[in-house]
C-alpha cells in the first residue's frame, strides 16, 4: 500500500487478514464459546468490531472532515452488549471486513494534512484525526490479541497435553 502520509493505514488494512488467519480452523461453536460468563466470545468480539467500525470510527472520521472541531461522546462497548450477544460470527466478520475496506480506501485518498484536523472528545479533550487513527490501531491490536487468546484456549491448549501447562492464558 502506498504511504499517503496518514499513520496506521497498513495496520488497519491488515487487521481483517490477521483475524481471518486466526479464525481459519474455528467452528461456529468455537466462535460462540465463552471462557467465562463475564467474558466475550469471538463472535461477540467480531460483532463489536463490526459495530464500532461504522458507528464509532466511520462516524467520527466523517465528522472530523465535515465539521470544524466536532464534539465526540465517549464510546463504551458495554452499552451494546445485547447487540453483540446473538450476532452471527460470519455475518459480523463479513460486515466488518467490508466496512474496513471502504474506510481504508477512503483514508488512502486523504492528504496527509487531514491528520491535523481537530475535534473535542468529551473524555480526553482536544484530539486530532491522526491521534484517532493511532487509537483505532490500538483498538484493533487489543482485539487481535483477545481473539488470539480465545483461539489458543479453545483450539490448542487441550491438544498440547502436558506441554500446555507452560502457557498462562487469559482469554
Summarize the structure in words:
The protein has 171 residues and is mostly helical. The protein has one domain: dinb family like domain (Four Helix Bundle (Hemerythrin (Met), subunit A)). The chain contains 6 helices and 3 strands, in the order H-H-H-E-H-H-E-E-H. The chain has a 3-stranded mixed beta sheet with strand order 1-2-3. A hairpin with a 3-residue loop joins strand 2 (118-121) and strand 3. Helix 3 (42-66) runs antiparallel to helix 6 (129-156). The longest helix is centred in the last third of the chain and has 28 residues, at 129-156. The protein is elongated and about 55 Å long. The model has no long low-confidence stretch (mean pLDDT 94).
CATH topology: Four Helix Bundle (Hemerythrin (Met), subunit A)
Name of the top-level CATH class: Mainly Alpha
What's the total number of strands?
Answer: 3
Give the overall pLDDT as a whole number: 94
Strand content: 5-15%
Described by the principal axes of the CA atoms, the overall outline is elongated
> What is the succession of H and E elements?
HHHEHHEEH
Largest sheet: 3 strands, mixed
Query: What low-confidence regions span 5 or more consecutive residues with pLDDT below 50?
Result: none
**Separation of the first and last Cα atoms:** 33 Å
Question: Which structural class do you get from the secondary structure elements?
Answer: mainly alpha
Number of helices: 6
Rg computed from alpha carbons, rounded to a whole number of angstroms: 18 Å
